[in-house]
Amino acid sequence: MPDSCDLASGTSYDCNSNGIPDECDITSGHSLDCNQNGVPDECDPDCNHNGIPDACDITNGTSQDCNHNGIPDECDLASGTSHDCNSNGIPDECDIASGFSLDCNGNGVPDDCDIANCDGSPWCGDCNSNGIPDVCDLSATFQVTSPTYTPLGTPTVHTFTLYAPPDASGSVVLTFSALGDLFATSRYVNVSINNQAVGTAYGHSGYFSCSPNQIDTLSVPTATYNTLKAAGGGNVAIAMTPTTNMNPTACGSTPTTIQVTVAYPASSNAQDVNSNGIPDQCEPGACCFADGHCEMKKAALCTQAGGTYKGLGTTCTPSPCGPVVCHGDMNCDGRVTFADIDLFVAALSGESAWTHAPCPWLNGDCNGDLNVTFADIDPFVAVIGTTCP
């Protein structure tokens, strides 16, 4: 049959409009067909305009496709389909999936970008500079979602790895969303964690072939999850293996896909006693120093400076630090001299009889037993002639 008739009848196609059937362009070498899909390469999608079909760029490694959507990563970024908040040339969702970046709040944005671009809100702040948004330090829930993997079917195994997630304090729930060859109960997905089988997804009635967003859940006991996590060196690799009778191309031109969300209760890294969304360790309180002065400091900084932290919610007005005790200085002139002797004798009568405030009665406690008694006489005599620190 003449080529013109093949083209006119639709028996053949001419995607490049050169009057020659595509299969002849390919057979003669006039056009290449690197992915052997029967379509000349110049007619296949080429989002980066390098003259090579996107599928071949990905196959031969000229381009990466970390999110497995069939589109080179550089095109995802250029089109805005994916974002690259840390400017490393890798889509954010891949940074998260690979463990290069954490996403503790599950918003699809790497934590380091949430922190770097924070407007001062508690949900994105990192007041203790530990690289974790404050909201996650306080949260008792861990949740993260994998990329959407394709295809779903034998022999492809997809693995979603969590790098150093927290230990679980309750059951771990894996929620799967899939589109694929799921109608028969004999077609399901085997699920393992760090090479240990933990159950299956799908494989029971109520699912349809090629219907989007079909959900199934699998619960993993707390002890099992934590044990397998420890066996994996602190990481968790969740492998999704389809049964051998699951056809990855069952939905024709529509890609078959699977995605998993991991969620579980976990121990929080910080406390928030006053429920203001700020970790307690980041809130300043009264910090008392040896010389009696008070400064507002965070607990860790107070201790580091040699002070005594008085607790969350304390302030320096009025000062909780109290007068400075200088053993033997009964008139508070900063020195221990013969002028202090009569007052020391008066202090031996007890605190209730002390009438020389604000100079503290406990300045007479020269042996450090928190009382003023005859046992302080010799220590008092020993410090006569000294000055207060």
Question: How would you sum up this structure, described in words?
Answer:
- It is a single chain.
- The chain has 389 residues and is of the alpha+beta class.
- The chain has 4 domains: 3-136, no CATH class; 141-265, Jelly Rolls, CATH 2.60.120.260; 284-322, no CATH class; 323-389, Type 1 dockerin domain (Orthogonal Bundle).
- The chain has helices at residues 3-9, 22-28, 54-60, 73-79, 92-98, 111-116, 134-138, 222-231, 299-304, 341-347, 377-383, and strands at 141-145, 158-162, 172-179, 188-193, 196-202, 214-220, 236-242, 257-265, 285-288, 294-297, 308-309.
- The strands form 3 sheets. A 4-stranded antiparallel beta sheet has the order 1-8-3-6. The chain has a 4-stranded antiparallel beta sheet with strand order 2-7-4-5.
- Strand 9 (285-288) and strand 10 form a beta hairpin.
- The chain starts with a helix and ends in a 6-residue tail after the last helix.
Strand content: 15-25%
**Computed CA radius of gyration, to the nearest angstrom:** 36 Å
Largest sheet: 4 strands, antiparallel
Termini separation (Å)?
110 Å
The coarse silhouette is elongated
Which sequence of SSEs, written as H and E, runs from N to C?
HHHHHHHEEEEEEHEEEEHEHH
* Mean pLDDT level: 88
- Strand order of the main beta sheet, please? 1-8-3-6
The helix tally amounts to 11
Uncertain spans, ≥5 residues at pLDDT below 50? none
The class by helix and strand makeup works out as: alpha+beta
Salient structural properties:
Jelly Rolls; four-stranded antiparallel beta sheet; 11 helices; 11 strands
